[in-house]
Design goal:
The structure is a single chain. The chain has 122 residues and is an all-beta fold. The chain is 0% helix and 50% strand. It contains no helices and 11 strands. Strands 2, 4, 5, 6, 9, 10 and 11 form a 7-stranded mixed sheet that branches. The chain has a 4-stranded antiparallel sheet with strand order 1-3-8-7, with no helix packed on it. The protein is globular, with a radius of gyration of 13 Å. The relative contact order is 0.32. The model has no long low-confidence stretch (mean pLDDT 97).
């Protein structure tokens, strides 16, 4: 069983930055691919970014490329999402997820955190 706890969300003005963290309570953290997803009010959950076990491979949705950076520290069992140049369209609950294969589909992930709210004001 993997428990994931997100933190770092909050209210920020457009153009600002936030850094999300997701701490995993599992000894074998380095064997999991990690992903970030988000869900805006009234919308379906969507893929944001994913990172391979070693961190050598990353994937992003097109709308965040060049603004968001996913990274991980396997020694700390933590994955991060650095978000820059935020826009109101980035508002939503952000979830981290753990799985076995890097993917942009939520169903490919086995474990999910409770989410952290990100609100970007215009």
């Amino acid at each position: 069983q993997v428990q994931l706890v997100e933190s770092g969300g909050g209210l920020v003005q457009a153009g600002g930055s936030l850094r999300l963290s997701c701490a995993a309570s599992v000894r074998t953290f380095s064997t999991y691919v990690m992903g970030w997803f988000r869900q805006a009010p009234g919308k379906e959950r969507e893929f944001v970014a994913a990172i391979s076990r070693s961190g050598g491979i990353t994937q992003y949705r097109d709308s965040v490329k060049g603004r968001f950076t996913i990274s991980r520290d396997n020694a700390k069992n933590t994955v991060y999402l650095q978000m820059n140049s935020l826009t109101p369209e980035d508002t939503g609950v952000y979830y981290c997820a753990a799985g076995r294969l890097i993917a942009s589909t939520g169903s490919r992930y086995d474990y999910w955190g409770q989410g952290t709210q990100v609100t970007v004001s215009s």
